[in-house]
Specification:
about 200 residues, binds adenosine-5'-diphosphate, about 45% helix, five-stranded parallel sheet, binds guanosine-5'-monophosphate, single chain
Length: about 200
């Protein structure tokens, strides 16, 4: 059986990593795809847990060797999803959560057609600003750059499959759980179980 990709996108500071880590604690059978990036670790971030932090040269060598299913330059740094970070898990039936920007989401959807796209919106740009500042790991100029990008990019939410408006955190986590549950109940994903329960004679 092969697992499915759940891609979370949204402006920096909107709450993607908070929602994704709660989801991993609450739902079985989920794996988190750890991206590579050329940016430096922020705050308490750890190598190999939040990201694989590499230098630009190493990242560029990985692009040349075809290691990435998708990669993008975001805020002047490289970010990318390696084939290695998802293939092994989906092959063993695990669903994989990813946190990538809108370019990455589009490329993953082109590559794996049944990818589920989830956009996390902040309740307002003012609240987004206060969350970016509260995180306390970004300078004023970085916060400004991320806010400008957010107001340009938010309209991309319209081509995603689902939108979570991250106002009340508990409700957002419940909505993310509901999306994963509903996708797992789709007929196409139930077929292997039906075969197991009722045998190959069942018309599939
Ligand atoms: P992202 O991964 O989208 O960049 P984070 O998950 O790091 O965002 O969240 C940014 C900040 O906002 C963190 O300090 C986090 O604790 C806080 N946060 C996330 N969701 C909420 C929410 N619903 N209400 C209030 N604060 C939130
Ligand atoms: P941050 O620096 O806040 O961790 O991430 C900045 C942006 O890069 C976010 O929009 C995040 O979704 C995106 N990002 C993180 N990993 C990847 C990746 O592997 N590929 C792409 N395309 N974007 C990523």
């Amino acid at each position: 059986m092969s697992g499915q990709l759940f891609v979370f996108s949204g402006p920096s500071g909107t709450g993607k990593s908070t929602i994704v880590s709660a989801l991993r604690e609450k739902v079985d059978g989920l794996w988190y795809s750890i991206s590579h990036t050329s940016r430096r670790p922020r705050g308490m971030e750890k190598k190999g847990i939040d990201y694989h932090f590499v230098d630009r040269k190493t990242f560029e060598d990985m692009i040349d060797s075809g290691a990435f299913v998708e990669w993008a330059k975001v805020y002047d740094d490289y970010y990318g999803t390696s084939f290695a970070s998802i293939n092994e898990q989906t092959d063993s039936g695990l669903d994989v959560l990813l946190d990538v920007d809108v370019q990455g989401a589009r490329n993953l959807k082109d590559h794996f057609a049944d990818t589920v796209l989830i956009y996390v919106l902040p309740p307002s740009l003012e609240i987004l600003e206060s969350r970016l500042k509260a995180r306390g790991t970004n300078s004023d100029s970085v916060v400004r750059m991320r806010l400008e990008k957010a107001s340009r990019e938010i309209k991309n939410c319209l081509w995603y499959n689902y939108i979570i408006i991250n106002d009340e955190l508990e409700r957002s986590i419940e909505e993310a759980q509901a999306i994963v549950s509903a996708e797992r109940c789709r007929t196409i994903r139930r077929k292997p179980t039906i075969k197991k329960l009722f045998g190959n004679s069942f018309a599939l």
